[in-house]
Design brief:
This protein is an alpha+beta fold. The chain has one domain. The chain has a six-stranded mixed β-sheet with strand order 1-2-3-4-6-5, with helices on one face.
Length: 135
């Protein structure tokens, strides 16, 4: 797994199948969000695993990833309270560059949970970070 280490205290890790060169093509403000996410994880001693950068995925409705305006990170190892607190804090800090559906408030991060056909959660969920066009 590729990682960036800060004095061996806390790593930002990337899934092995990701193309790290995508970081060079991503929009600068989404990279800011990634760095701030890493700092938050470091301060709270939480895992920091980036799971998606610019690759396209089947069933994706948005172009935020392929246009370099989004990334995903795993929530594995985070408690529900840690997730909730992070979402509130991060969106308060970065809502000015977040994106939103028409008529909704902008958000820099949202939380996705994958469920099966019966509605049961089948993954620990992930954070989806995004910036608006032109940000």
């Amino acid at each position: 797994m590729w990682d960036i280490t800060d004095n061996e205290k806390m790593k930002i890790e990337f899934k092995p199948e990701l193309d790290i060169n995508d970081l060079r093509r991503m929009k600068p403000k989404i990279v800011w969000l990634m760095i701030d996410f890493w700092q938050y994880c470091k301060e709270k001693n939480l895992p920091c695993l980036i799971t998606s950068l610019m690759e396209d995925a089947p069933g994706r409705k948005s172009t935020t990833h392929v246009s370099g305006r989004a990334f995903d990170a795993s929530a594995r190892g985070w408690s529900t309270d840690e997730i909730d607190n992070f979402i509130i804090d991060f969106n308060n800090k970065w809502k000015n560059i977040g994106t939103a559906p028409l008529g909704k408030p902008p958000k820099a991060v949202i939380f996705h949970v994958t469920r099966n056909g019966e509605g049961e959660m089948i993954s620990p969920g992930h954070f989806h970070f995004q910036v608006r066009r032109g940000a």
